[in-house]
Amino acid sequence: MLNQLSITNLRNITEISIEPTPAINLILGNNGSGKTSLLEAIHLLALGRSFRTRTLKTIVQMEKQQCQVIAKTTTNIPIGLQFDLATGLQIRLNNSPLKRLSELAIQLPLQLIPANCHQFFEQGPRYRRQLLDWGLFHVEPSFNFQWQSYRKVLQQRNSAIRQHKKTTEIQLWDAHLASHGEQITAFRKAQLNRLLEQFNDIFPRLCPEFSHASFSVKYRTGWAKEHSLEQSLQLAIDRDKQLGYTRSGSHAADWAFSINNVDPAHIFSRGQQKLFFLALCIAQAKITEHLNHESSILLLDDISSELDPEHQQYALDELDSLQVQSFISSTDLSLSDFSKKAKVFHVKQGEISGGGDG
Ligand SMILES: Nc1ncnc2c1ncn2[C@@H]1O[C@H](COP(=O)(O)OP(=O)(O)OP(=O)(O)O)[C@@H](O)[C@H]1O
Ligand SMILES: [Mg+2]
User: Which of 13, 26, 27, 36 to mutate to test the pocket of ligand 1 (most atoms within 8 A of CB)?
Assistant: First the structure.
């Protein structure tokens, strides 16, 4: 969690400094005032990348050379990020240059709930895997090792396939790949079960009209269920050689929720889709808090889009009851009366007032 945040020359924000609360921070203002930019700055700080652009050049304020985001965590760790048009990205964690982005992610477990998160059901398997793996990264100490090892072996197997190596040489990688893959599968299944349990508790509060629905979750391993991964790799060697890459494995896994055995995408309204995604993120945050005693940061961009005042209230009440730090943006200024615990920041043309002017 953050207790100090300063942003310089990022989009329309020339210079702001705030002291967020560890609970709900409401970022209110009109269109184009800088709300999403503020969330983008926090995302940048926690993950080293933006959720709006691949090329960081566009985030630097026009006619400026560099932007900066500086923060302090509630455990007093300083984090500083600078992006310079000429020299690129530099991040310092605890006053030393950052070695790996994962060090940042460990300090600041952050989940983004973007304004268009109701499109969750239109996203591909890669997105769903990343969401699940985010949770595992924070609760399962050996998940990152298993996943990185899996990826390395997969690259080596694919490279052997592309170089038209002999079958026996390609298959030298199979046992390693399968052992990491089976472990990843076990972790993911366990996390999905935890997720479902939390989701069943949370979702009816956000969306009472579904309080009697029965949800279930299905995990597809990424290979034929009648075989082990090692057997699948061996059986599909000719296909892989033809394709030029390894098709089966944990990198091809997927998962889905169903509601009374039907795909929620066919049932949910847009608002309900948004609440579904929000419940998933809250569930992950609760699991992280429960298993790892790490408090997450949730960025909820534009809570008012797709949600009526009543459902917004349910969502805010839920967030208010949690051990998470949230930054919630909205154009609806009436949200400022929501709760005494929440800190309210008003954004106007890249400047901030209210809350806790740092
Ligand atoms: N590199 C840049 N330099 C200066 N201004 C920029 C830059 N990039 C974007 N902007 C401007 O910054 C402003 C803030 O954008 P932002 O997306 O943060 O607004 P917002 O408050 O989230 O609005 P909305 O309610 O419409 O989502 C916009 O006017 C945008 O045009
Ligand atoms: Mg916005």
Answer: 36
